[in-house]
Design a protein that fits this description.
Structural class: mainly alpha
Number of helices: 9
Order of helices and strands: HHHHEEHHHHH
Shape: extended
Oligomer: single chain
Largest sheet: 2 strands, antiparallel
Length: 197
């Protein structure tokens, strides 16, 4: 065995030991934790003290998060191996995603099921049109009078801009992020407009 093979085997063994210590067998730990929670639930019902149950549930959530990350890593590894190649795996994943993202029927406000793309689209349009339309408020002034606004807040909102405030705001902008919908980063704008600090 060469020195390189020995080193690789040594590191592989160390990684397995690290994984066992850091993560252990997550599936086994989940089963054990769920059993402990059942026992703790019985104790909590009898004694009325649920501190231990709360701690166990927090630990269970952490284990479930670890398990989810483990499965994500495994699926990414599988995706890297099988990937976008023209394989059965790829077509199965694409078909599954298409089925998952498809709305086949919806229930309308009357409780009836609506099917068909056109009828479902019309249901969405009707719902959001109703949601975002006005219900004809005619006593808006009375509502606004009841909202209390501190005078200091109002004064801050209507006072004129001061050059120092604008300079400070500009200096605190992230240079490589676009501040508006045009997508132009602040660094480029400041260069074009001649701002220099």
């Amino acid at each position: 065995m060469s020195v390189i093979e020995a080193n690789v085997n040594n590191y592989q063994r160390k990684l397995k030991d690290w994984s066992r210590v850091s993560f252990g067998n997550i599936s086994r730990a989940l089963v054990e934790k769920k059993k402990k929670i059942k026992v703790a639930e019985g104790e909590a019902v009898r004694s009325g003290i649920s501190d231990q149950l709360h701690v166990l549930k927090v630990e269970l959530r952490e284990l479930l998060t670890k398990e989810e990350k483990l499965w994500q890593q495994r699926s990414k590894l599988h995706w890297l191996k099988k990937g976008d190649q023209n394989t059965r795996y790829f077509h199965g994943k694409a078909s599954q995603r298409c089925r998952k993202n498809c709305i086949k029927c919806l229930r309308n406000p009357n409780g009836e099921w609506v099917e068909g793309d056109d009828r479902i689209a019309q249901l969405f349009i009707d719902y959001y049109s109703e949601l975002f339309s006005t219900s004809n408020p005619n006593q808006l002034e009375e509502v606004l009078v009841t909202i209390s606004q501190p005078n200091s807040m109002n004064a801050d909102l209507v006072k004129p801009f001061v050059k120092q405030e604008v300079d400070m705001a500009l200096k605190h902008m992230t240079p490589l992020k676009a501040q508006g919908p045009d997508g132009i980063p602040f660094h480029l704008l400041s260069t074009l407009l001649g701002f220099h600090w």
